[in-house]
Task: inverse folding
């Protein structure tokens, strides 16, 4: 499921444009006891293009502690967001007070946080909408955000001063989240600006799922590399010609197996995929066809920005499953969704019917491959793919089996309503406030079901007339979603139970107890519907500490994936391997 739907609640990540007085310290002019410790002028780039510029200063006062001020601008979707922030820390670098505001094209957004008696209280304010969260674990607490580089400069000083442990909690007020974080290093690193060579120290920071390298030179933050998002930042005062690293990328190891590109037609579009075969095997082979989750997803399972083609979240789940299958003699086929990667089409206009047509075309292409047994093709649907795979299997009697990875028995409206309720409960929202939010979600679902055409057929005024609680900001986000209105409507109107009651193929169900997008309780519901169909070959595996992206997740369930840089949970790989070998051989 696509978490962007949760934006309908009015949650927003604010930025800034205001400065605030340093609490407890009078402005005494040039004779003030505060000392300027550090300043920086950072440029953050993505694919060589500037996306953020920030200037910051860090001061120290013996009585009040540390004060971080910064001003900057963010370039987002062709619009410039001007921002400013101020954070006060005590003498041990514990955040005490934080204020952040942004001038956006749609108005001012305010984010604030302050240390209270019972925790670190965070608030996001967008117009009349206010949301709050609290961090109660204050041991080893740091304040961080990917959009504010100055905070990482403070973190670097706290680490050097041993004021924070190597494993700590990061509060992210803009997202109303707290994440586990850990730091490794320092290690020596060589970096360059133009022809100038520098030798600095590198600290590797894991912040949830995000991996960053902080580069220190002469006791200051000189550069920051975000390997997860593909961004790089550098201090223009030190590196006026940009920054590059001597050893920035480590290649992935090669696995045993043979791959080739297979292009195929779906209507007037040409789609592209990868057929993976075992390195040594005699055909014809059983094969699994992977069916994607929602949104712009490539053949490996990565989330992609369809506008730029850049990977925005490297999930890599389908490729890893394909490798595990080839290790036991099973072939697989994975393809780029329409409008993604090497496949033609427009991702944002793809309806559910379009995606079903693409799966049918992929099956036809797979059956023509000389190494593949056309009678042993199994459909593996992940998330949204768990809705599509049973439909295809019911209509195509030649499909041999179905694997449901984080699949659902209830319709998309019921699942997204559960998502909203779970997210709000995590934020401590209950009672009448919770009922009001769910009533808004119900109104949104009702609109989707009754809608016609696509988002472009509705003006902002028309949408607000249909859903009066929508703010201008949320309405613009809604229209900009990468999911077509027809996609949503077809999913909301479809009843997966009708299909599951007809599915008699062998079925493997894998769900995770830590999945906050599709609850693990869907697995027994699917099993019950299959039993109604008279299905006698059902395998159910509900795995503890497994999240929606098939990763081991020992923490409490959440929608911020903290483990995508780790491999797919071996329990998932082994379960799929064993099930395939027991039923379809190799």
Result:
């Amino acid at each position: 499921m696509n978490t962007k739907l949760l934006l309908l609640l009015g949650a927003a990540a604010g930025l800034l444009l205001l400065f605030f007085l340093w609490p407890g310290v009078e402005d005494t002019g040039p004779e003030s006891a505060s000392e300027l410790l550090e300043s920086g002028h950072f440029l953050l780039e993505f694919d060589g293009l500037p996306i953020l510029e920030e200037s910051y200063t860090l001061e120290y006062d013996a009585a009040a502690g540390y004060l971080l001020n910064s001003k900057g601008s963010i370039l987002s979707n062709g619009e410039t967001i001007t921002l400013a922030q101020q954070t006060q820390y005590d003498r041990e670098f514990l955040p005490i007070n934080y204020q952040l505001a942004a001038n956006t094209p749609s108005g001012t957004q305010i984010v604030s946080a302050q240390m209270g008696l019972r925790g670190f209280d965070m608030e996001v304010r967008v117009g009349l909408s206010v949301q709050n969260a609290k961090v109660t674990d204050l041991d080893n607490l740091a304040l961080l955000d990917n959009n504010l580089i100055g905070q990482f400069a403070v973190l670097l000083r706290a680490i050097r001063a041993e004021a924070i442990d190597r494993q700590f909690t990061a509060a992210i007020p803009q997202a109303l989240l707290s994440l586990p974080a850990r730091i490794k290093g320092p290690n020596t690193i060589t970096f360059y600006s133009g022809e100038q060579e520098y030798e600095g120290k590198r600290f590797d920071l894991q912040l949830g799922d995000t991996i960053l390298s902080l580069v220190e030179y002469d006791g200051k933050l000189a550069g920051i590399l975000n390997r997860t998002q593909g961004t790089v930042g550098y201090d223009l005062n030190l590196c006026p010609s940009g920054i590059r690293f001597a050893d920035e990328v480590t290649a992935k190891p090669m696995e045993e197996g043979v791959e080739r590109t297979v292009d195929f037609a779906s209507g007037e579009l040409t789609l592209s995929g990868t057929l993976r075969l075992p390195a040594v095997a005699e055909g014809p082979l059983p094969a699994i066809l992977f069916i994607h989750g929602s949104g712009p997803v490539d053949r490996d399972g990565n989330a992609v920005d369809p506008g730029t083609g850049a990977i925005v979240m490297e999930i890599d789940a389908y490729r890893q499953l394909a490798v595990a299958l080839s290790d036991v003699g099973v072939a697989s086929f994975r393809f780029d969704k329409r409008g993604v990667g090497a496949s033609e089409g427009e991702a944002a206009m793809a309806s559910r019917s379009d995606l079903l047509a693409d799966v049918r075309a992929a099956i036809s292409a797979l059956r023509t491959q000389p190494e593949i047994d056309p009678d042993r093709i199994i459909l593996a649907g992940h998330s949204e793919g768990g809705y599509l795979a049973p439909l295809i299997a019911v209509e195509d009697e030649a499909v041999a089996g179905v694997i449901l990875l984080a699949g659902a028995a209830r319709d998309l409206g019921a699942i997204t309503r559960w998502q909203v309720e779970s997210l709000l409960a995590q934020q401590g929202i209950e009672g009448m406030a919770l009922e009001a939010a769910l009533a808004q979600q119900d109104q949104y679902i009702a609109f989707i079901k009754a809608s016609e055409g696509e988002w472009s057929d509705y003006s902002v005024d028309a949408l607000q007339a249909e859903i009066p609680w929508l703010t201008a900001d949320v309405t613009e986000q809604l229209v900009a979603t990468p999911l077509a209105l027809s996609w949503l409507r077809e999913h909301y109107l479809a009843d997966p139970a009708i299909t599951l009651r007809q599915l008699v193929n062998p079925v493997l169900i894998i769900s995770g107890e830590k999945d906050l997008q599709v609850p693990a309780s869907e697995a027994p519901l699917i099993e019950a519907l299959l039993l109604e169909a008279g299905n006698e070959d059902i395998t159910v595996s509900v795995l503890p500490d497994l999240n929606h992206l098939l990763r081991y997740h020992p923490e409490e369930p959440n929608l911020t994936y903290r483990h995508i840089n780790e491999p797919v949970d071996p329990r998932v790989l082994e379960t799929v391997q064993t099930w395939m070998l027991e039923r379809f051989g190799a």
User: Anything to note?
Assistant: The CA atoms of residues 10 and 474 lie 6 Å apart. The longest helix spans residues 431-450. Residues 1-31, 248-254 have pLDDT under 50 and may be disordered. Residues 413-493 form one domain.
